[in-house]
Amino acid sequence: MNRDTSCLFCRIAAGEIPCRKLFEDELILAFEDIKPQAPFHALIIPKEHFPTVADIPVESGILIGRMVSVANQLARENRLDSGYRLVINCYADAGQEVYHVHLHLLGGRKFHWPPG
Ligand code: 5GP
Ligand code: ZN
């Protein structure tokens, strides 16, 4: 499994940096965003290091499905019944700041469309 010892989210996945964990299995970790942009804001990551969603090869595409399944489960558990948003930022213009792929799950307020 790819791991980057200088990567913040690899270090969180390895337990070297603390997080408020919401879900974990052998492939996926979910935790609270440190700077929430909504009343509920979770990050769902693969434990394996891929810098961006564009770096996930087709044979690892199952990880995207697992990330979305975990997000849906967290949305159910946290009663985000009136709506939630799933976001993956890719590269600088989209606002990606951490180069370990992550799915944002945002809920608990109304969101605008188109996004900013
Ligand atoms: P991006 O802008 O790359 O799509 O999202 C990165 C997210 O990671 C941001 O929402 C930011 O608040 C969050 N983040 C950055 N550093 C940390 C950290 O050390 N711990 C946690 N839990 N979240 C972080
Ligand atoms: Zn990483």
Task: Report a brief summary of the structure.
Helices cover 19% and strands 22% of the residues. The chain is α+β, with helices and mostly antiparallel strands and 116 residues long.
Annotate the secondary structure layout:
Blueprint: H1 8-13, E1 21-24, E2 28-32, E3 40-46, H2 62-77, E4 84-87, E5 103-107
Antiparallel strand pairs: 1-2, 2-3, 3-5, 4-5
Guanosine-5'-monophosphate is lined by residues 8, 19, 31-35, 43, 89, 95-98.
Description:
The longest helix is centred in the middle third of the chain and has 16 residues, at 62-77. The chain has two helices and five strands, in the order αβββαββ. With 116 residues, it is of the alpha+beta class. It has a single domain, classed as HIT family, subunit A (2-Layer Sandwich). The mean pLDDT is 98. Guanosine-5'-monophosphate is lined by residues 8, 19, 31-35, 43, 89, 95-98.
Which characteristics define this entry?
116 residues, 5-stranded antiparallel beta sheet, 22% strand, globular, HIT family, subunit A, binds zinc ion, alpha+beta, binds guanosine-5'-monophosphate
| Class from helix and strand fractions | alpha+beta
Task: Compute the number of strand runs.
Answer: 5
Q: State the strand order across the main sheet.
A: 1-2-3-5-4
* Bound ions, cofactors and other small molecules, one mention each: guanosine-5'-monophosphate, zinc ion
| Cα-to-Cα separation, first versus last residue | 35 Å
Q: Describe the largest sheet.
A: 5 strands, antiparallel
Proportion in β-strands: 15-25%
> Considering DSSP H and I runs of 4 or more, what fraction of the residues is helical?
10-25%
Number of domains: 1
Shape: globular
Low-confidence parts: none
Overall pLDDT score = 98
Report the total helices. Answer: 2
Calculate Rg over CA atoms.
14 Å
CATH domain fold name:
HIT family, subunit A
CATH architecture type: 2-Layer Sandwich
What's the order of the H and E elements?
HEEEHEE
